[in-house]
Structures are given as C-alpha cells and as structure tokens.
Write a structure and sequence with these properties.
This protein is an alpha+beta fold. Helix content is about 25%, strand content about 30%.
C-alpha cells in the first residue's frame, strides 16, 4: 500500500519527473504537466541544419543568439513554462533570468518547435501560451501534417492565422529576429 507523505505542487512534480526521466522534456502548459520523450534523428537534424542556417545568415553581431532547450517562463499560469526546441533570443538573455533555467519572454524573438509525438501541444496550447507571452514569432515544423507554420505579431494575447508553407517552398523569417533568413520547408521537415 502506498502512503502519500505530502502533496506536491505541479512545479515539484515537474522537477521530480525531469530527474526521473533524463532526456525527456518536461513542461507545464496552461497548468498541465506534459512529458515528451527524446526526439528522433530527423528532429535533431532539422535543428542542426536550422542552427547552421542561423550562423550563415549572420546571427553573430545582430544582437541575438540561438539556444536549444532553454526554459521560457510563461504568464499563462503560476508555474507554467515551456522548453522550445530552439529559440532566437537577445544576446543578453541571461539578464532576464526568472527562476531555475527559465527566462522572461520579452527576450525571445523566435521560438521553434519541430513536432514529435506531442504534436498537438505544439499546434494548440503552445500557440496560445506563446501568443499570451508576446513571443514575436513562433515557427512550427509540423511533421505530422507535412507543413511549416509561422505565427507572428501577437495582439491581445493571440496570434492571427499562421502563414502555411508546403514542401518546395521557403519560409521567410520576420524582421523581428534581427537579420534576414529564408528556410527550406523540406529541410525543416526532414532534417
């Protein structure tokens, strides 16, 4: 018989799960604890190629940096946070530390998600959370539906309908990231 010693907060439960499941991504979205298994090879390769494209586009000297797997503090609920696959942030983002490894949303210029088994979180709650946080651009390589979506310019806590890009097209990233870059849809989807 199990005996409950003390009730955990959602944040404490997230911390315990993160320690117990190395390599898994533990997030709290809209007051809901989510756990995503480690990504597959194509997912990782998509991010690697995106990082190379950011370097070629001249992110150095633009006032921005790219980081993988850094926490984004969300204003949607008291303990909400996300860990985007990749983010373009102000180069002084570390000055915006909130708690643990989470940073204030105002230093994020772009967040990127490459869908995995949790694709519904990337297309639903994260769209709402990132818009409410005021993230200027949210790029989703939606491998489930074989397209790339770009959400930009949130207003009143919501993004307008996303721009949708199909295979064979390129995605022009918005000027809000601080430099010019176009990305191949095929590369974003396939790695």
């Amino acid at each position: 018989m199990a005996v409950l010693q003390q009730e955990l907060t959602l944040g404490e439960a997230a911390d315990q799960l993160a320690r117990a499941l190395p390599g898994h991504r533990v997030e709290i979205l809209q007051g809901r604890l989510t756990v995503t298994p480690p990504p597959d090879g194509s997912h990782g390769l998509s991010l690697t190629k995106l990082c190379r494209a950011l370097e070629r586009a001249g992110i150095d000297g633009s006032g921005a940096e790219w980081v993988q797997g850094v926490g984004l503090w969300l204003p949607t609920a008291r303990e909400d946070f996300a860990i985007p696959d990749l983010s373009v942030v102000d180069d002084d983002f570390r000055d915006a530390h909130v708690t643990k490894n989470y940073y204030a949303p105002d230093v994020f210029r772009l967040v990127v998600e490459v869908t995995s088994s949790n694709w519904s979180d990337d297309l639903g709650p994260k769209v709402e959370c990132y818009a409410q946080a005021g993230i200027p651009a949210y790029l989703i390589a939606d491998r489930k539906h074989d397209e790339v979506l770009l959400h930009t310019e949130p207003a009143d806590g919501k993004y307008p309908d996303p721009e949708r890009f199909k295979r064979g097209q390129v995605v022009p990233l918005p000027e809000s990231i601080g430099f010019r870059l176009e990305l191949s849809v095929d590369t974003l989807l396939d790695g």
